[in-house]
TrEMBL record:
Entry-linked InterPro entries: CASP/CASPL (IPR006459), CASP_dom (IPR006702), CASPL (IPR044173)
Xref: PANTHER family: CASP-LIKE PROTEIN, CASP-LIKE PROTEIN 1U1
Claim: S-adenosyl-L-methionine is one of the keywords in the record: no
Name by which UniProt lists this protein: CASP-like protein
Keywords: Cell membrane, Cell wall biogenesis/degradation, Membrane, Transmembrane, Transmembrane helix
Subunit structure: Homodimer and heterodimers.
Compartments, record wording: Cell membrane
Pfam families, sorted: CASP_dom
Segments traversing the membrane: 51-69, 94-117, 129-156, 182-204
The Casparian strip membrane protein domain, residue ranges: 44-192
Length: 207
């Protein structure tokens, strides 16, 4: 009987340890799923904010391009043979501004489906990485157009005595008002792009 007791003891000990191991396994799995779910919800929230920012950036870039495109003004004179006119197409920098902001608006519109993918699949890194690279390039393009146009707007308002460039905004007030407003909207788009790049970097960070 003593022998049978020993055998039963030998049999029961691994059975208990096996049941303990079985009991611990589901707990580990539940904790892992909970962590993944929390990270996915956090990144989905960032993706939704990213989508809304893109809509706002589309509006800012489109208004900038449209305002500059319509910034023509003709001074009224008594004779139709002598007229002074100012328009964006008279300045290559403003022409570049209209083209650049139109391209930026088009890119933002095309990036919306990719942003939707990041909402549906918040843990996917490839779409977010693609947006980060493209947004950075678009930010540099937008900044170049806004900065160059801002320099021309400054000269239009203040002129430059060293080069005998006279300010024209006293005569072409509406033209300067529209062109300056377009520059302001372009810098608003720059701010939105900067936030988008930061959001993409945060979303790519592992939690």
């Amino acid at each position: 009987s003593r022998k049978m007791k020993n055998e039963s003891t030998v049999i029961n000990v691994p059975a208990e340890s096996s049941s303990a191991m079985k009991g611990k396994a589901p707990l580990i799995g539940v904790a892992k799923d909970h962590t993944t779910s929390g990270s996915g919800g956090y990144k989905r929230g960032l993706s939704i904010f990213d989508f809304l920012l893109r809509l706002a950036a589309i509006i800012a870039a489109s208004v900038a391009a449209g305002t500059m495109f319509t910034s023509d003004e003709t001074l009224p004179f008594f004779t139709q043979f002598l007229q002074f006119e100012a328009g964006y197409d008279d300045l290559p920098t403003y022409q570049f501004f209209v083209i650049a902001m139109s391209i930026v608006s088009g890119y933002l519109l095309l990036s919306l489906p990719i942003s939707v993918v990041t909402i549906v699949r918040p843990l996917a890194t490839a779409p977010r990485l693609l947006l980060l690279v493209l947004d950075t390039a678009a930010l540099a393009f937008n900044m170049a157009a806004a900065s160059s146009a801002a320099a021309i707007s400054y000269l239009a308002h203040n002129g430059n005595q060293n080069t005998n460039w006279l300010p024209i905004c006293q005569q072409f007030g509406d033209f300067c008002l529209k062109s300056s407003g377009a520059v302001v909207y372009s810098f608003v788009a720059v701010v939105f792009f900067t936030i988008l790049v930061v959001l993409s970097g945060v979303a790519l960070k592992r939690h």
